[in-house]
Amino acid sequence: MRQAIPEQYAADYGYPAPDQVEVTGKGSLRHLHPQRQLWKPYNNSDSQTIIATSQQAAVADALVSTGTLWGFNIGSASTGGHGVPLQQLDAIHHIKTGYYQPYTIASCANDTVEGSADERPLAFPIPPGVLPQMLPEHQINNSLLSLPAFPIQDLSRAEILKTPGLTWETRLRWIELPRDPFNASAIGAVILLPKTSPSPDGASTQKILVCTLGAGWGPSTLNTSTQLLGSSGVKSRISDPEVVAKKVFSYKSTEQDPGLPKAEDVAKLSDGFFVFPAYPERLINVSTNWAQYLNPMIVDEGVTVFHRLMQANISDDHPRVSAAIILPSLLANGLARIGFESSLQGDLRMTTNAQGESNADIDSWFRGKGDAFVVDPAQSKEWVKLEVFSTLEGYAYNTSGAGPKVAIIFLLAYCTFAFAHTCYAGISGISSSSWDSIGEVTALAMNSTPNLLLRNTSSGIADAKIFRLPARIFAMPDQAGEGEHLELVLGDQEETVVAKRTLKINRVYG
């Protein structure tokens, strides 16, 4: 699958874009993620080194199956005070520990074969993603290729011309590389580029690409999400990228490895990284017999998978870049499909209700009191057990923890106070229907004696302290002294004044 990508992604990641290729399993949709390596062991090393990784098919299928089972039963679960689902929006499922997935890397260089009499030894680029101190640098030959390379003395260029296939097709031949000097390499590959016009192999110069591939198992975190309508694709990231960054940084030497990422470059390490021995942890050796299955024949077209992919021109830069993307991707997908026929084992744990009906024991599973499946201990000794962590996103009510309990106490106290006040007002009968509108309050203010505290406010209120003054309604004597009227009084008052001027119940004021 080829997609146009923004320029900023091309600059940061190279080709193709992150999460570009989707591959299927029996019950899951996985992501095959190729990206450019961010580190060069030597200044003149390959700048187009590509890393690829993909989730293990069997584990991805199992995770999706678990998420589907979760989605079917979430509505009937009772979580005992730890949140009762009201509406499910999304559920995230993780495998955080014990999971490893393949990480592959490739470096390719241009070369030629000058006819069937070319007996020069064939050379391959140094193993990509390996620290220089792990390689026998004294054996590096800088003249056979444009990149630092190790020659194989017992493999001549003329021998490569015997690779089966048509000369106008892209042919692929796998080469097992010796452990010394190719430390930490998985396998080699020679690509015979198609000739523009049909001719015998030995009649003209044959352009070739020589590639060195590395592979390893790296600890990763696997995740997917389930919605009401189904599951999304399965994705993964490197486990503990901060730890990996610090480990890589510990190998950094200003003179030897100026290109190693810094410890704070965690974001660049999360999706894919290959600097052995920092990451991945377990190297993989690939035999040519096994590798042959990575390049099957497309029966309907009569060409190989590799030839068809190279024809797609994944990168317009050069066939070398396309090969550096395709080869680690094929290898990563092939490794990820090892054991793809495996599936979840065991029987779903069941429970019987009071009516004698048998149902799935979902409550125990959701409360973390047991596994969802029942397995035979003897049979399951050699089985792989992975723990799935699930998080429900949606609306729910929750009473667990100190926060909700304290909030409930305050809310009950407020409700008690409000209820007591309502009862007191209803029983005592002390209430007033006066001054329940702006007009009534304005009339009361206009009928009141001017207050010195309100001086300098006729053109506007500039100080908020005016609003902090206490306000009372007092019964004040009329000027004639024969009755009383009500006034709005601001500010603190003496207790004797308050006692004398307080309104009397059931009294009419003029």
Structural class: alpha+beta
What is the overall pLDDT average?
80
Biggest sheet overview: 12 strands, antiparallel
In DSSP terms (H or I, runs of 4 or more residues), the helix count works out at 12
- Name the shape in a single word: elongated
Distance between the termini: 90 Å
Structure description:
Strand 17 and strand 18 form a beta hairpin. This protein has 12 helices and 22 strands. The protein has 510 residues and is an alpha+beta fold. The strands form 6 sheets. Strands 1, 2, 3, 4, 5, 8, 9, 10, 11, 12, 13 and 20 form a 12-stranded antiparallel sheet that branches. It has a two-stranded antiparallel ribbon with strand order 6-7.
Pick out its properties.
single chain, alpha+beta, two-stranded antiparallel sheet, 12 helices, 22 strands, 24% helix, disordered N terminus
In short:
Helix content is 24%, strand content 27%. By secondary structure, it is of the alpha+beta class.
